[in-house]
Model the fold of this input.
Amino acid sequence: MTPSDSASQTSAVSAQQTAGGRFGSLGPIGLVLAGGVSVQFGGALAVTLMPRAGALGVVTLRLLAAAVVLLVVCRPRLRGYSRTDWGTVIVFGVAMGGMNGLFYQALDRIALGPAVTLEVLGPLALSVLASRRAVNTVWAGLALGGVFLLGGGGFGDLDLAGVGFALGAGAMWAAYIVFSVRTGRRFPQADGVALAVAVAALLILPLGIADAGTKLLNPTTVALGSAVAVLSSVLPYTLELVALRRLPASTFAILMSLEPALAAAAGFLILGQALSVTETLAIALVIAASVGAVRTQVGRRKPKPKPQARTAREQEPAVKPEPVAMPEPVAMPEPARELAAEPQRPTS
Done:
């Protein structure tokens, strides 16, 4: 190892500890909630931008700006990764691009509330499939009831193409959760999410150019698209990636059921959409499901007592051998007084 390699490794470890301390103060649950608030308010801002650039144009601006910001800030290392590492981050980027593209296509056809309601079915299905405890199925069912209630109790009057796009976005969202976990394990800090956003931007770029054309070059449109990128991509993707390193995918997926409630709040504050009694009850249901999931997860993570190392005195034999009498002139080496074995570390 050269001195430069050693210095780079030392700085990388220091940066990772700093980032972990900064984000870790919120806890994984706080990180997920902060990311959800950011992405929903960014989505409400994106709705106001659609008349300027169209659905795919907004997605293109959002992902391009997010890719530039993350690549400049994170400066991810491109060497030293295996084919499996690159395959993981590429699939993560495809899932991210598909999730964004399909969801904005749904927003172009149906309202924000039903679109988010249908999209969240993907993470809810993942929570049921990934969970190993029966109680999580109860929380998922409760959240599912609130999600359908938030959608008005039925989706028969909605545009079928919009419904299909929203369900497809939900499937991509589930894939995003799975590959976000895998990317976080293979890439340090936010390097993986920066590379994945770049892949998603390259995937959507031709579609955005075909849909919006020169509208993507308007300075006001670019500025609004950059704001949407920070709120809807840079902050939530980074926060969720850090959170998923310490939070099971099943619990994370159930927490995503808060998205319709956050979307309703963002719609009320930014778009002027008032909440009805039915929508308020639906929000209460999804919050109750999320709180139940959090309490279940906290109950599973009670600290276990660490095994204590045996002392040297405990490891000495119960019966010591009698010393052998030797003639006076002969010098014998002094026997070892302690036999201390190295304490075993608890396996993780």
In short: Residues 1-25, 309-316, 324-348 have pLDDT under 50 and may be disordered.
